[in-house]
Design a protein that fits this description.
Blueprint lengths: L1 H21 L9 H8 L1 H11 L6 E5 L2 E7 H10 L15 H10 L3 E6 L17 E4 L11 E4 L7 H18 L6 H36 L16 H4 L14 H20 L4 H19 L3 H54 L1
Parallel strand pairs: 1-4
Antiparallel strand pairs: 1-2, 2-5, 3-4, 3-5
Helix pairs in contact: 1-5
């Protein structure tokens, strides 16, 4: 009951502050130029707060759109630790946190959201601290009790993001021209890519081993780099090393023993059917031949090879023509010889008569 009464009082106070901040009379308060500049004060304040690194925020999906959002209680703590940011609001710097957020809501710089999944999932102790899917909350008022607020304006793109987006076509063209690179450049690119791939595979393997050992022996779920495979995460969240607190129930002992036995049997089975040294040597030779063909390919050699093949085709055609011509001459000589023999035979028969 006390919380409901406090919420009602806060709503009344915040609505009055919103009216005083957003609905002032320009004829009695400030000139039109100052009034126009004051409209941008909260926009500047919102951009400054959003770019500040101390405000904890996450990304989520709101109506099929990715938005950046924060929690109401985190915003209260943030402004309490950084009161100098209120100086941007000029004459409204003395407003309370609730009033400031309500003004931002009235100016459509923020929108209050709520989690889509409102029930605890099976196997978990409580709701997720940072939900991945949000929906618009019916009452657009500030609250620090499990309330989320998403930015509605498009943030200014940093210079490095613009340069990175312009570099993608250049990178694509460079990848397509890889076959014509010098041999040393090909080796450098090959070893660099192989090293990065090996690093990723080793990281995933160590990550899985740590999770398996901790889950089997201690009953705890420890994922180092918990967001390394996340589809939607910022760069800072992607390379975060230590995981968050485990909010799921502790696994049963029977399940841990069962999966430990399955893992041991799988390892023994793979070890028994592992390829021998001869098979590994054949596979290595095959892969080495493929890599050598890629590295040793040169456009000049390709052009010379095409010229040699064309020359050989021309020579083969001439030989076939010569053989064909020779065969026709022999056939003509044979026919002429047969005709002469038949003529001599007729003359001999006439002489005998």
């Amino acid at each position: 009951m006390k919380k409901a009464g406090a919420e009602k009082k806060r709503a009344r106070r915040s609505s009055a502050a919103v009216k005083s901040a957003a609905g002032r009379d320009p004829a009695t308060d400030t000139p039109p130029r100052k009034q126009a500049s004051k409209k941008d004060v909260f926009q500047l304040f919102a951009e400054k707060v959003r770019d500040h690194k101390d405000l904890v925020s996450r990304w989520a999906v709101l109506q099929e759109t990715r938005v950046e959002y924060f929690r109401g209680k985190d915003f209260v703590t943030f402004l309490r630790n950084h009161p100098e940011l209120k100086d941007i609001l000029e004459s409204d710097r003395h407003l309370e946190v609730e009033d400031i957020v309500n003004v931002l809501l009235s100016k459509n710089l923020l929108v209050r959201c709520d989690r889509v999944v409102k029930t605890v999932r099976p196997g978990k102790r409580k709701l997720s601290t940072w939900p991945a899917h949000l929906e618009i909350f019916p009452e657009q008022e500030f609250s620090d009790n499990d309330a989320f607020f998403a930015w509605t304006f498009v943030n200014k793109r940093p210079l490095w993001q613009t340069l990175l987006s312009l570099s993608w076509p250049v990178l694509t063209l460079a990848i397509c021209l890889f076959p014509v690179y010098p041999h040393q450049a090909k080796l450098l690119i090959l070893y660099t890519c192989a090293g990065v791939l090996l690093l990723i595979l080793c990281l995933l393997l160590v990550r899985a081993l740590i999770f398996g050992v901790s889950w089997t022996l201690l009953g705890k779920r420890i994922w180092i780099f918990p967001n390394i495979l996340a589809e939607e995460a910022t760069l800072r969240e992607l390379f975060r090393f230590w995981p968050q607190k485990d909010e799921e129930e502790k696994p049963k002992l029977t399940a841990r023993i069962f999966y430990a036995i399955v893992a041991v049997l799988a390892i023994l089975l793979l070890r028994h059917h592992a390829p021998d040294e001869a098979a590994r040597a054949r596979y290595q030779k095959r892969v080495s031949n493929i890599i050598d063909d890629v590295l040793e390919w040169d456009p000049r050699l390709a052009l010379s090879g095409m010229m040699d093949s064309m020359q050989s085709e021309v020579n083969g055609t001439e030989i076939n023509n010569n053989v064909t011509d020779g065969g026709g001459n022999e056939k003509a000589e044979y026919v002429e010889h047969e005709h002469d023999e038949s003529t001599d035979a007729k003359d001999l028969y006439n002489d005998n008569i």
